[in-house]
From TrEMBL:
Residues 484-725 form the ABC transporter domain. Residues 348-397 are annotated as: Disordered. The lineage of its organism: Eukaryota, Viridiplantae, Streptophyta, Embryophyta, Tracheophyta. The chain crosses the membrane at residues 860-877, 889-908, 965-986, 1065-1086. It comes from Flemingia macrophylla. Residues 374-397 have a biased composition (Polar residues). Residues 1-23 form the signal peptide. It is a multi-pass membrane protein. InterPro entries: AAA+_ATPase (IPR003593), ABC_transporter-like_ATP-bd (IPR003439), ABC_transporter-like_CS (IPR017871), ABCG_dom (IPR043926), ABCG_transporters (IPR050352), P-loop_NTPase (IPR027417). GO terms for molecular function: ATP binding. Keywords: ATP-binding, Membrane, Nucleotide-binding, Signal, Transmembrane, Transmembrane helix, Transport. This is ABC transporter domain-containing protein. Pfam families: ABC2_membrane_7, ABC_tran. SMART domains: AAA.
Amino acid sequence: MGNYTSWLLILFLFIPFLSPIHCADNTFVPSFYSEEIYKELENLASLLNKDIKSGLGFCIKDVRKDWEEAFDFKGKLDFVDSCVKKKGDFRDRICTVAEIRYYFHGFLEQGGSASNYVKPNKNCNLTSWVSGCEPGWSCSAGKNVDLKKDIKEMPFRADNCQPCCEGFFCPQGLTCMIPCPLGSYCPLAKLNNDTGICDPYSYRIPQGEKNHTCGSADIWSGVVNNSDIFCSPGSYCPTTTRKVSCDSGYYCRKGTTHQNPCSKLSTCNPNTSSQNMHAYGVLLIVALTTLLIFIYNCSDQVLVTRERRKAKSREAAAKQVRETVQARERWKVAKDVAKKGKVGLHDQLSRTFSRKKSANQAKRGMGDAFLPSTAPNSSDTHEQSSTASKSQNKEPTNLTKMLNSLENDPHGNEGFNLQIGDKNIKKQMPKGKQLHTQSQILRYAYGQIEKEKAQQEKNKNLTFSGVISMATEGDVRTRPVIEVAFKDLTLTLKGKRKHLLRCVTGKLMPGRVSAVMGPSGAGKTTFLSALAGKARGCTMTGSILINGKSESIHCYQKIIGFVPQDDIVHGNLTVEENLRFSARCRLSADMPKPDKVLIVERVIESLGLQAVRDSLVGTVEKRGISGGQRKRVNVGMEMVMEPSLLILDEPTTGLDSASSTLLLKALRREALEGVNICMVLHQPSYTLFRMFDDIVFLAKGGLTAYHGPVKKVEEYFASIGITVPDRVNPPDHFIDILEGLVKPSGTVTHQQLPVRWMLHNSYPVPPDMLHFADQIAASSSSSNINDALKATEEVVDQSFAGEFWEDMKSNVQIQRDHIEATFLKTKDLSDRRTPGVARQYRYYVGRVCKQTLREGKSQAMDYLLLLVAGAILGTLTKVNDETFGSLGYTYTVIAVSLLCKIAALRSFSLDKLQYWRESASGISNLAHFLSKDTIDLFNTIIKPVVYLSMFYFFSNPRSSFASNYAVLVCLVYCVTGMAYAIAIYFEPAPAQLWSVLLPVVMTLIANQTKDTLFMRILIKLCYPNWALEAFIIANAERYTGVWLITRCSSLMNNGYNVSDWPLCLVVLIFYGIIARVVAFFCLVVTQKK
């Protein structure tokens, strides 16, 4: 690599001389001697160009560009012309390829860390040390040097040693001259008599040599080792022999060839090296803070205004439908009254004229009395004809059309027709699929609901399906029927000997509402979970038949609704938005949108949620609707998908009697449509209890005490000697007996009730419970029964190791069950094609957008923290030219990673329960994940802008804003994916801890030395290493001219390659994609235990 480096420097050093020499007045000075030198050096540069490109790609990406920025002396060759005039042997004093290669080879061997790179050579060694070996001096070769050839050996230089010309530097240990690069200042030094140093350099003249004077510069190296030739900060050097102070309104960095204008909002004093950005910072902070305050307080106002407009449209549609219905009813009443009056008048006239005329004449006279005169005059005829012509020209009003339709067809659909006034009104009423605008859809939905109400009021004995069928003229969707039968259903915890359910036999019929009751710990929720196929970690025996066939309940997942005990709904969505999303994703994809709107409106109407439909459900931090209304929303999310089997876990818990009754009425309407409904119930009132069709009483241990019609439950218990006292609620009395709080009269005990039910239905009795059957037959005493019960409950003690091993096996089996359930694939028998991933993704994106807008305060705080971090880090960590700003970029990687990771945790950690419920119902996991990631892309794009708006202008690096932005975008994308995986896999508290630890630890590792293979691999695996490399490379590329050696030494010491900038971005994006794949896998596998 050392050989290639010297070739590069030769190329840079000698190509400038190919240009003709100009004077100060910019006129060309012809010189045959100079032209010959240019020709020789041109050939030398062409020989080395190819080797330079192949050997020094780690710090030089574009050789021609870097040459132009470092050694383009066009119009600036006064120092060459001056040196030629002073030294006639100028050509023999220029370093050859071998000498320059020797100089920079030592530089590369020492890693750019030494101040002197020249080792002893044939000209300068312990035995031969001429004056030209001193710093700032050079000697002539004494013979013509052929610069057209790649000379491998250094020429002998010891003749006519003189001080080095200005604009050149002469290293100590070499007796030749090398041109100084642009951005440097290489004047002739002056001896400081006080210090003995040749100012402005740091070398001294040799002692004892009176004829030895100060020459030009003596070394060009990295700024860390020696910065003597660098143009000083606050000044700029248009040539290597001229330095100019920076003017007011401009700032001049170290080693620059021109002055940079200050930005509009900054100030620059004369001779300054940086611009004062305080005014910009204050204005920007005030502007952005004002914007964030506006977002913080008004983020959800857009949705509020939109919902208000939709509510007005909905109310207008409902009002129009009600007015139409009322007008129809009033017209029918008036018409009935007119008909009755007409019949009465007809009877009176018939009695008056019956003696004078025949029945036919009287009838004809009756008709004539209501007709105009048969012989009108001509004027009347003309007036009538003109009136008729006017009436024909005038278009009848909507109300007139409706009244005419009611007159022609009293039982028609007028009053519910949404396109009154259309030319094709008499053909047919429009169907839902023919509606397009939102107002038409709403009028259609409310019209259907009003018709259903009217038909139900008129035909109270009809089923709900019959009402809907009449309201829709026979065009009604039929739901598939699901009948669930179970026999000897037993659930036992794996690894233990505890029964959760035991010998449960029965059947749940379509069109009936069943309740499951029992004391706490009787296995009610476990029973429903087993029927729904959600029981995990248990060994199940017995059989469950679906429609008489041994099929998995998961085959009917799309038409099964499961309402969990907890109210798992989205608190930052309104009631209608929760219901509408569930309907969109779970109803048939072929169902027209108006019909879906009708279903949602019907559920809102039946559950009594009209008053709060536009209210947020609410969260722990933000108050929303009441607990009872939230419970009804929880149930409504399953009702809107039109299930065939609806399972509810304690839906009335926490509700008052009125709300419970309203909820059960809505469920009975579903049952009338053929839905099989089963729910767990706690302490119902007697009125509510009588509204159920069937009841299941479970005793402790998961045993059945009764399963049958509600009407016969009291009769059954009375037959075994358990009667309900006066003024006592029967279900409460039965639960107290099953709990053992109330002792029944006679010899009956609560332990015998399951066995009595088995004997009553001729079910087989488990062997360990046969003694209860014997006691029932022998009417044994309760003391003996208790003794026998205690004997059966004795458990054999195990050793600690045996118990620990059993628990370990149980946990492994439970985890295996969860994984098997996650990837279980069954045949779909539900006959319903729900929306695909693409359409569900669209629904999810809309929902997440609303949730993000309503959580605008959190977003505003995230942006404010980034602003503060950018301002502080930009102020404290000004870009250091020696390290290319690595310290500031290190803090940037840590700060941005921390803030963006912690903010990204909210995407998946706040709604885990809601996701688990939606995933269990069959909604796409992929659509859920992609929608979250899509919305977070907005933050991925905006957050780097927010941070750089402060950090970039306060730290003022040389790299462009665009390059810093590109690196930060890739970094944020990477850390956001990691935050997804952390949020999904861990609980919130450890997830935050991991989000803090990972960036700090990985950044510390990335800054370690790469001295071993293990450390090199470990550093490459840390994403901060790639971000830091991208930042430093982008900044280092802007350091040209005199900074070229500094750039190469820094990149070499850090192991960076200037061509790897795109690779760094690709690796960061790749890490982000891998993290998202891992996060999605965790999302699918990690389910609620």
